[in-house]
Amino acid sequence: MTSTNTPLTVIARMRAKDGREAALHDALTALVAPTRQAPGCLAYDLHTEVGEPARFWFYEVWRRREDHAANLEAPHITGFLGQAANLLDGDLEVHFLE
């Protein structure tokens, strides 16, 4: 397990419901600026998969695991999670890397 002083890399993958690609893209784009301002955020980049316009990826790097955990409680993240069921086809897939 990552120590609290080791940077944490997070890869998140999600797929939009049919017809909800633009709405999901807009909702995800709205997360970028406030998350980049979060304490401990070193990188927070949104990507669309080549050839799969409904599939989105976040690449994140956090100073510490605790910084990432604190950001998950931020209003912009909890607000997105509240609307995610209307936008996502399936579950949000998240991987933590050392």
How would you describe this protein?
- InterPro entries: ABM_dom (IPR007138), AI-2_Isomerase_LsrG (IPR050744), Dimeric_a/b-barrel (IPR011008).
- GO terms for molecular function: monooxygenase activity.
- Residues 8-96 form the ABM domain.
- The chain is an alpha+beta fold and 98 residues long.
- It has helices spanning 21-36, 65-71, 75-87; strands at residues 8-15, 41-49, 52-62, 93-97.
- A hairpin with a 2-residue loop joins strand 2 and strand 3 (52-62).
- It has a four-stranded antiparallel sheet with strand order 2-3-1-4.
- The protein has a single domain, classed as Alpha-Beta Plaits (2-Layer Sandwich), CATH 3.30.70.
Write a concise keyword list for the protein shown above:
98 residues; alpha+beta; Alpha-Beta Plaits; four-stranded antiparallel sheet; 3 helices; 37% helix
* Largest beta sheet: strand ordering: 2-3-1-4
Average residue-wise pLDDT: 96
Q: Can you name the CATH architecture?
A: 2-Layer Sandwich
Report the total helices.
3
Secondary structural class: alpha+beta
Distance between the termini: 8 Å
Poorly predicted runs of 5 or more residues: none
| Percent of sequence in beta strands | 25-35%
The coarse silhouette is globular
CATH-defined fold name = Alpha-Beta Plaits
**Any idea what the radius of gyration is?**
13 Å
Proportion of residues in helical segments: 25-40%
- Tell me which oligomeric state these chains represent: single chain
Keywords: Monooxygenase, Oxidoreductase
Protein name: Antibiotic biosynthesis monooxygenase
Pfam family, one: ABM
InterPro entries: ABM_dom, AI-2_Isomerase_LsrG, Dimeric_a/b-barrel
